Every structure is written in C-alpha cells, then in structure tokens.
Amino acid sequence: MLHFIKVNRFLKTLTPLHFKNLEIVPVTLDGSYSCLSTCNVFCNSNNKVSSYSGVNKANKVSRNVLIEKGLTEEKKSKAMQAYLERAQKYNAFMKEKTEEFNTGKRHLANMMGVDVETFTQNDVDAAIEYLFPSGLFVPGARPLMKPPEKIFPPKKDAEFDDSGRPFHFLFYTGKPNFFELLHEFNVHLQNLNDYEDKMIRRQLQPDPNVKLQLTGSVWITKEDLETRLVENLTDKEYSNFLSLLERIILHPYVYNIKDTVMSVRKPIMNTKVDISKPSKPSYDKDGRAYITTTACPRKSARATVTVWYPGTGKININGEDINYFAHVQPREQVLFPLHFSGMLDKVDIDATVTDGGTSGQAGAVRWGIAWGLRSFVSTDMIEKMRLAGLLTRDVRRRERKKPGQWKARRKYTWKKR
C-alpha cells in the first residue's frame, strides 16, 4: 500500500537522479524544505520512488506556503488585476472624501458655535444655507455639503481576492447582498419560532403590554433597497422580501427583534403646505378678483399685500408708488415677482408695511406679492416661482454681536506688540 512520505524527512534517501524533475526550494523561516514538481513523490514499502503525473495536494499546499511567506508570487490575469485596482482606488477615494467631509463638518460646527457630536446633517444643511444664501433657480446648483456616499454613486467592494476566489459565500447567486438579507430575516423568524416553542413549554404567554408600533412608518421602497444593497432587484424578488417581512411582524414575539424590523422601515414625513394649491380669490362689487395676504414677514418688518386682477400695473405702498423706496435695489426686489411671472402690467398691488428697515420692508412686500400671484398664474409658473425661491419665507435675521469681537463675525485686529 502506497503512502505519502514528507519531502523533508525523505531528502537524505534521494539520489541525484531523483532531483532531475524536482525543484527543491529552502524555506528559511522554519528550516524546512518545500518541493515543487511536475510529479508527485511516493514511496512504497521497499523505499522505491515512483511518480504520478498531475498537480497533487502536496504541491498546492507547498505553493500556498511559499506565497504566504513571500518566496513567490501568485499569478493573476490582467482582468482580475484591473478589477482589484479599480476597487482599491474607489475605496481609497471614498476614504479620502469621508475624511474631508468630517473635517469640514467639524470646522462648520465650530463656526456655528455648537458641539460637533450633536451636529446632525439637518444642522449642516441649515448652516450652509445660512452662510451661503443663493438665489439660483436649480436646487442642485446651490451650495451643499453632504456625505460622500450620498453624492458619489455607490459601488460594491472587491468581491474577489488576489487568486480570484469570491469573498461572499452567496456570490454565485448573482445577488449575494439580497439573498444574505433574506437569509438573515429567515434566521430571525426561525429563532422567534424556537423562542415561542420554549415559552409554550413553560406555559407562558406573550407580554400584552409590549407591542411593536409600526404606525407612522412604511416598508422601505424597492429603489431604496436597491440603493442600500447596490444590486438591481426584480418585482418578484421585492415581493418575496415583503412577504417574509409580513410573516415576521405577525409573530407574537416580534418585539424581540424591534431594531431589526425597523431597519427596513422608514418614517412617513409630515406633509407640508402644498403651495401648488393657492387660495380661491375673492371678488369686489365690480367683479374684480383679489387676494389679500396678511403678516408677510421679513426680519422685523410686517406687510399686508393685496393683489388685484385684472389690473394695469399700479403699485401702492403706504399710499405712495414704487418711489416709496429711495434706492434701486429695494425697488427691484418688489418688482422681481411681477417680472418673473409676466404679470407686471396685468395686476395692481396695494401694500401696507410697518416696522423694519428698507431691506426688510422690501422683502416683506416681495413675498406677499409672490404669494398672492399664485391664484392668477398657471401651475407650471407656480413651480418655477418655487424653484426661484419666491415662495420661500426668508427667516434670516441680523446676527448679534459677540462679546470679545468687533461685530458679529469680525474680530479685533491682532497686534503682536
């Protein structure tokens, strides 16, 4: 019966003829030898050497040892090498951008005078809008500061090692992330069934005071799930996923995995006022339609604006025409909604404004005019006005002076001596 003999125990018995087809490589890390050959070395009971063609297990093991100890390199195709380089380059790029975002977020929190640990993304958006106000029509062109994963399209990490072997055990399903998620929820369901059986044997019932509250949230959409998994799903696969989730939430002990269930649900956002549905206008005794907007705010100024339709372009502000504002800039502010909507010569404006300065009064009248024009323009024009920022209240206020500073932002001039 043939049996395998380790090379390092059999080296002294070999003659130079035996080394003809063998390549002996010393491994200096542990003092042993490794054999790479086109044949396999065996020995029978008479200590005679025989060969067997092909690559056997011993050759593979010895080659892996050499690769691990850095004595040789693993050959890989150009396609695999290019794939790994792209994956590594993308990961390095995202790591760099994440560090830049965290650094910028820390500086922004210091500028706003808040704790960086409690500085959320909503706070970041509000700070950017406050520090960099923009009148650009397209929201995507305005300044923003978002995490890199929300700006740059996500990509999967390297799915293979240097030898071409896939990392994920479900790689050959074609959608490993999705089927791994299904597997995890299925395991949770089995664990809940086992826990229920255990409680039944103990003659215990579920706690009626502890329930999973799903009110105010819905299941994650197919598009959001695809974005999270970085995989494209069919309607059938998404339906199967929802069926599994519905089975889980019907389990009497589902509250034990509350965090897991809520991870695939998203809250229903509070609906805001639909600005595309304006109020119906009123009519005077002559049949003219009009809309009155009260408490139009801007800084400390408050205005009451009435828009009459049809009209001739007459503007009345506190009993005066547009010359109520002495400078050109506040006049342009008041006329901008009328120019933008093309209603300059089609409506009349009556406005009463109190408190505040020139800039605040002009801003209050401008917002009141824009808000009233919704009842006399088309839906497409309302959307354009919204994108232009005419229908958004400007809640900015004058920033207070800080102690130890010259003004709100300006510091005292530093002098060395």
What is the strand and helix layout of this fold?
Layout: H1 7-10, E1 22-27, E2 32-37, E3 42-43, E4 49-50, H2 57-68, H3 78-112, H4 121-131, H5 148-151, H6 176-201, E5 217-219, H7 222-229, H8 235-249, H9 258-262, E6 265-267, E7 282-283, E8 289-298, E9 301-309, E10 315-317, H10 328-341, E11 348-354, H11 358-373, H12 379-387
Parallel strand pairs: 10-11
Antiparallel strand pairs: 1-2, 3-4, 5-6, 7-8, 8-9, 9-11
Helix pairs in contact: 6-8, 10-11
Report what the structure shows.
With 417 residues, the chain is α+β, with helices and mostly antiparallel strands. It has four domains: 7-68, no CATH class; 78-151; 173-267, no CATH class; 282-387, Ribosomal Protein S5, domain 2. 38% of the residues lie in helices and 13% in strands. The chain has helices spanning 7-10, 57-68, 78-112, 121-131, 148-151, 176-201, 222-229, 235-249, 258-262, 328-341, 358-373, 379-387, and strands spanning 22-27, 32-37, 42-43, 49-50, 217-219, 265-267, 282-283, 289-298, 301-309, 315-317, 348-354. Strand 8 (289-298) and strand 9 (301-309) form a beta hairpin. Helix 10 packs parallel to helix 11. The termini are far apart.
Highlighted features:
about 425 residues; two-stranded antiparallel sheet; alpha+beta; five-stranded mixed sheet; 4 domains; 12 helices; disordered N terminus
The CATH architecture classification of the largest domain is 2-Layer Sandwich
Number of domains: 4
What is the CATH third-level topology name of the largest domain? Ribosomal Protein S5, domain 2
Tell me the fraction of residues in β-strands, as a range: 5-15%
Structural class: alpha+beta
Question: Mean pLDDT, rounded to whole units?
Answer: 79
What is the highest CATH level, the class of the largest domain? Alpha Beta
SSE succession? HEEEEHHHHHEHHHEEEEEHEHH
Count of extended strands: 11
Question: First CA to last CA: what distance?
Answer: 97 Å
